[in-house]
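User: I've been trying to design a sequence by hand for this structure and keep getting stuck. Would you show me what you'd pick, starting by listing the structure so we're on the same page?

Assistant: Good idea, let's start from the same input. This is the structure you sent:
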């Protein structure tokens, strides 16, 4: 995710939280948004400066946050943009994995391990259902034991054998690829062409 997209995501979530509850404070906002308190304060100041949020002081040195009409319109715009971008991403990712899986089928590949733990990994699992490709499991890389799309999380130390390892993440993509190629031969690690720009210099 680039910086502009990240900023928009944080602001969208912030406006949504404030719209849901004017009683929320900065500490609670920071926790819900998953960012530092200082960064939360900076984003709030930006929203106030843009005229999206109004702050009123109430007794006991507390503050209440309100969305202005302009803020509500911005929240609506960012939400619509998010869903449009998400649908576009899903379509591109699905087509990219369809191309990859078709090529792997032609090579006689049947069993793959996915490397990653984000929405691209989920799409990779779903797309495999339309091909003669079995997803043995997922090397999450984040230490969590949760399955992804029904595909079990695998032991990082002794993963099961598979014909190919497939890099399927937009999070720490280069690091994930480097880890995979350290475990497997270069020829055994593949990725969808959607990730070409991220990994072109790695191969």
């Amino acid at each position: 995710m680039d910086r502009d997209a990240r900023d928009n995501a944080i602001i969208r979530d912030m406006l949504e939280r404030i719209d849901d509850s004017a009683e929320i404070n900065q500490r609670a906002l920071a926790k819900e948004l998953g960012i530092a308190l200082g960064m939360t304060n900076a984003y709030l100041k930006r929203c106030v400066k843009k005229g999206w949020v109004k702050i009123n002081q109430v007794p006991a040195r507390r503050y209440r946050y309100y969305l202005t009409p302009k803020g509500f319109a911005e929240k609506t715009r960012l939400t619509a943009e998010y869903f449009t971008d998400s649908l576009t991403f899903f379509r591109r990712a699905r087509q990219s994995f369809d191309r990859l899986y078709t090529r792997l089928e032609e090579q006689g590949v049947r069993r793959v391990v996915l490397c990653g733990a984000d929405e691209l990994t989920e799409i990779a699992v779903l797309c495999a259902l339309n091909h003669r490709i079995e997803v043995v499991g997922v090397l999450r890389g984040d230490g969590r034991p949760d399955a992804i799309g029904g595909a079990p999380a695998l032991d990082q130390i002794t993963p099961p054998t598979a014909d190919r390892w497939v890099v399927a993440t937009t999070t720490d993509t280069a690091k994930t690829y480097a880890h995979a190629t350290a475990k497997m031969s270069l020829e055994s690690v593949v990725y969808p062409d959607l990730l070409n720009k991220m990994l072109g210099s790695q191969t």
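That's my pick for every position. To get oriented when you compare it with your attempt: DSSP finds seven helices and six strands in the chain. The radius of gyration is 21 Å.
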